[in-house]
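Worked Example 4.2. Read the sequence first, then its structure tokens.
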Amino acid sequence: MKKNKLKTTYVCNECGATFPTWVGRCSVCGSYNSVVEEILQEKSTFKTYSTKEISPKPITDLKVSINTEREKTGFKSLDNALGGGLVSGQVVLVSGEPGIGKSTLLLQVASNFAKKSKVLYISAEESAYQVYLRAERLDSLNENLYVLADTNFENILSAVENLNPKLIVLDSIQTVYSQSLESPAGSVSQVKYVSGKITEISKEKGIISLIVGQITKEGSIAGPKVLEHLVDTVAQFEGERGYAYRILKILKNRFGSSGEIAVFNMTDKGMEEVLDPSAFFISEKPDNQPGSVIFPFTEGAKPILVEVQALVSKTFYPVPQRRSQGIDINKISIITAIMENQLKINLKDKDIFVNVVGGMRVDEPAVDLAVALAILSSYKNVPIPSDTAVFGEIGLTGEVRSVHFEDIRIKECKNKGIKRIIAPTKHKDSTLEIKDIRKLNQIFSLINQ
């Protein structure tokens, strides 16, 4: 007897769009090679649930009816980045490259929570003994820290119901599957279903959930975009393989401001928080060396001083090289073109290399002026004083524009011993020498001083 053929559909891993046949490029979001085949779920396999009577409450009564007390993670910088700590019922998605230290950090957080309440650590990638060995190395053993090594979501739900923990750590969402769906673990439908149920349980029982998410080769979170919309907080764990530091960047936060960062130093005993990142990143800055500039970088409420370096050398190729690390290469090309046009200098026969020391990734426009001054300093072979900080956005016509958070940038510079600020600002401070730059050609006078 001929068996019934399973019905399949094709789903985009990036946006969740469906197609009757396979396509190389998703017509909805434009991503390539993101469409995969999935088994079409029969409607009869879904369970129906009876609805319960719910009465809405006035918004003025919610303050006293909902517990908003923050739970501390054991890391002061991480608590600050999260807005003061974790909130009951909060779901946090932590993403990052393999081996970056996600599991290590979350195991340390779980151990800190276990000192006062029950914690369930769900390992869907490692055995329970592997988790024990890591916890022993990190000195994170605690009898309130329960470990479940399983990939079956129904077993996980049963363990949550029986244990009723205060904190859940799921490592990772892409390896967990539900028996109610026929598609494999990591598929769009599985990730959506599992993450949706975890969010539902967290809100209903007031459980804090920390979910580990893998990333694609492009650096985005693997799985559908709906995963980022379901959770309350999205945190990206970053770091260069050649450096011991790690940066946790808050990309989305419903219980605080986004853009905040926490810096950690990876050691054999786990993650150690860096309470003063500015001193950490500029501690080895060379004195009186051309091409080196201090830039106050910020995406949230806490600026970090980083060192921007540039090297300009004569090219031996028909087309000069433009290379950068930590800054978009297109930004370097635009700044170089503006400098040639406004400063009347010839960079067409020069190789230009720009680097943000320490591997920090800087995307904000305020770094434009620091890059331009570093390039000009190397080109003229004239050093910028070490007690000078630079920031400002450069327009295509050579104007230097004001940027956000200038007050807290200047305050951080002052706290770290900076005596001179070069930026487009009207800020007044008797203890600082502030150069108000409004046109790019004004930096010539600074180099020639």
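Now turn to a second chain, presented in exactly the same format:
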Amino acid sequence: MEYRNMLLVASTSLLLAACSQHTFKIPEAQTQHHQANPSDQIVWAINSGGDAYLSSDGIQYQADAIKMASGDASHVVIAKGTILGTQDPNLYLSSRQGETIAYQQPLANGTYSVTLRFAEDQWTQEGKRQFSVWIEGQQRIPVIDVVNDRDGRNMTSYDISVPNVELEDGQLNIDFKAATGKASISAIVVRKPYQVDKDWQLLWQDEFNQDGRVDETKWNYELWAPKRVNEELQRYTDRSENVRQQGGNLIIEARRDFFQGDEYSSARITSAGKGDLLYGRVEVRAKLPDGLGTWPAIWMMPSDFDAYAESCEDPTDEQKLCNSWPNSGEIDILEHVGFDEGRIHSTMHNKAFFWKNFKQRKGALYEPDVTHNFHLYAMEWSPERIDVFIDDTLYFSYINDHQGWQSWPFDKPFHVILNIAVGGGWGGIKGVADDIWPKQMLIDYVRLYQKKSLT
């Protein structure tokens, strides 16, 4: 949930102080923390058009020296320049391009996820290169337009994963079919389902089993006027119309009801000061809203908002202008925008890499039924890396490069935030429908874990 052109506020710090005598704060983990290595689930990785490559997240890509499949009409292209938005820019310099690209790889039968890595090396405008992705004879991504999908940028990495690929004939088939221009692919990673380490200890949870208001020993309401951040249109309230526990779920409901004279209302709750976490695993089982103009998010912000602020005006001024964001970091476990239904996003924000310098680090996954069914959105966080999942599919990793707090402010406690925004700088980029409301995000539970050996 990007804080573009943000007016930073002191309310979080004040809230922590006010609530401290009633909080349950999760103990900070020791820095010797370790977690399962997601690279262990990889069964095949290839640097398309390039040499063997070991990436920052521990993936060994094989050189693309294989004989291409029948029907392939691709050729190798080597980009000139620097690829932004990734910790492995050299991986994206080579690509295969063509009207059709076909990979066939022998693999044992089973269920896999496929991560595809792209970078547009030629076009600076969207619509110039568009293609679909087919896996095992099924269209799994209708349209890839890297410039459009990567925030209007070329020479910038774009990663998207496809979950639940069922292989039954001992050969994985991946095809890219051009609609406009030529298809392109820079790298492919195939993984087995992720196995969660059994050493996690549950430390904090909310199952939302009691109908009524949320448990205020665990959650805080944020009461904000429209356009406080990101040009969003909603007023955040604590009304039961906007946030409540009902039928075993937390319901966050965005409405077009002109409450207090504002067209849209919604809710945003946080666990700040009541469920803070430094290193561990976060799980949120949720069903997302659909509809043009919806922008739900499951994310985390630092509980000490000013931890890495370098300059502030009067710290008691609610409308102070600081660089607390992005300096102190932000962890977006899940974002979804209604104009691009089925494509979910995870992003890490910090001073070194955020949207204004075009170096933002992020990953996406395409799963059309996220607005129809519950899924488990999870994040595992250690001093060395952050990995983000949907169900048992890893779809984004961010690695500590040990270059200082500017790229790794993730060494302080963070808290969970749940909300639906309406419109705004991203959610409203294609407009806001006025005839779809109300829209709900349903949350079955929120659980925070740390390693048993550290609790």
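Notes for the reader: The helical segments are 11-19, 146-149, 324-327, 424-427. The first strand starts at residue 42 and ends at 47.
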